[in-house]
Design goal:
This protein is α/β, with parallel strands linked by helices. It folds into two domains: 141 residues, NAD(P)-binding Rossmann-like Domain (Rossmann fold, 3-Layer(aba) Sandwich); 110 residues, 2-Layer Sandwich (Dihydrodipicolinate Reductase, domain 2), CATH 3.30.360. The chain is built from seven helices and 13 strands. The longest helix is centred in the middle third of the chain and has 14 residues.
Length: 261
């Protein structure tokens, strides 16, 4: 039995993790933290708590699952590690520098931490397919679509996709003419690392979407589109459980669900 703490327990994703922990016989919900509805009994005398560090010290938590906000997630992760609590992080918005620092502290303290921009198996396969296609196409762009309450842009999934693509191709703008934007941002954001990559990422925010992404590859005379749609948030839960089970048994740092599939 893995004892689960959920941080961001009242949020849309956090609520799904709470349901998972309640319904799965291999998991036990022992802690719930959120800034809202403090004191609410959400299940079997597990109450919403507002003080994260105090909750970690009091509750016997094996693994914390964090779906909070981009502005707070970095400090949250450091708090988990400093308190010797393993964590699975689904909140996006962490910078490359922050992820590197988290990995460093995780390794130093020997406390497992699993960060995943996306927990959908289909989305992970979409990223793998895009990475493979990058070997054969000179041009590519990413369009990601999310609901209009998502605060960070572009999505962690699109950034992770771009990183995987760049492992197989260091320039996705071969042959493009010199461009001029008559409206700032019309071409989206250019994702590159040390001058490599050059992948345009376009972020759409609109009610009606949950999460979708399309990677478009172009070459002379042909277009390849790799598209994935998330219909509801339940689809993430199988990936969340895989991450929880892995980090419960291991003390390593992991970035990306594809590393354990």
């Amino acid at each position: 039995m893995i004892k689960i703490g959920v941080v961001g327990a009242n949020g849309k994703m956090g609520s799904e993790v709470v349901k998972l922990a309640i319904s799965d016989p291999e998991l036990e919900l022992v802690c719930a933290v959120d800034a809202n509805n403090i004191g609410q009994n959400i299940y079997n005398d597990v109450y919403i708590e507002g003080d994260l560090e105090a909750a970690l010290k009091i509750r016997n938590v094996d693994v914390v699952v964090d779906f909070t906000q981009p502005k707070s997630v970095y400090e949250n992760v450091l708090t988990y590690i400093e308190n010797g609590v393993k964590s699975v992080i689904g909140t996006t918005g962490l910078s490359n520098q922050q992820i590197s620092k988290i990995q460093q502290v995780s390794d130093e303290k020997n406390v497992g931490c699993f960060i995943a921009p996306n927990f959908s198996i289909g989305a992970i396969l979409m990223m793998k397919f895009a990475s493979e296609a990058s070997k054969y196409f000179s041009n590519a762009e990413i369009i990601e679509y999310h609901h209009n309450q998502k605060k960070d842009a572009p999505s962690g999934t699109s950034i992770k996709t771009a990183q995987l693509m760049m492992k197989n191709n260091n320039n996705f703008k071969l042959g493009n003419c010199e461009e001029t934007e008559t409206i700032n941002g019309a071409r989206g954001g250019n994702y590159s690392i040390n001058g490599n990559g050059n992948i345009q990422i376009h972020a759409v925010r609109m009610p009606g979407f949950v999460a979708s992404q399309e990677v478009i590859f172009g070459a002379d005379g042909q277009i390849l589109k790799i598209h994935h749609d998330t219909i509801n948030r339940e689809c993430y839960m199988s990936g969340v459980k895989l991450a929880v089970e892995h980090i419960f048994k291991n003390n390593n740092f992991v970035y990306g669900l594809e590393n354990i599939l």
